[in-house]
Amino acid sequence: MEKSLVFSKNLTALRQSFGLTQKEAAQRLGIPYQRYNHYETRRNEPNLETLTAIARFFDVSLDELLGNEILITPRALRKTAPRLDGGELDELLDLSEALHSKLKSLKMKK
After folding, report:
1. Is residue 7 domain-shared with residue 56, that is, in the same domain?
2. What is the per-residue pLDDT across 23-45, written as a single tens digit (0 to 9) for each?
3. Is the pTM of this model over 0.90?
4. What is the CATH number of the domain that holds 59?
5. Is 102 exposed, middle or buried (0-12, 13-18, 19+ CB in 10 A)?
6. Which of 79, 76, 78, 28 shows the shortest CA–CA distance to 56?
7. Is residue 62 within 8 Å of 51, Cβ to Cβ?
8. Domain coverage including residue 47
9. How many domains would you assign to the chain?
10. Tell me: the pLDDT tens digits for 2-20?
């Protein structure tokens, strides 16, 4: 699926999940309504600063907002969980790999 389509669908779904109109979302983001509308209708794409503001507002990562596959790498896991002992970290890494494999198999079934 085209990235701009994924972004616009994700943006629409997030706004609706917050119970906001396009106008309300635009106001809260501090951008003109027409510009926000153009993001949802694929007539325009936001710059990086606006993308970041949207992701923060809806409490999602840029990857989630853009529809990118999210992977928890061993390096990222070690950075975010430095206080875990070796066994706990290994267990989390195993769970991460299992989840990634399951997600991959589900995508192949589509």
Report:
1. yes
2. 999 999 999 999 999 999 999 99
3. no
4. 1.10.260.40
5. exposed
6. 28
7. yes
8. 3-66
9. 2
10. 777 899 999 999 999 999 9
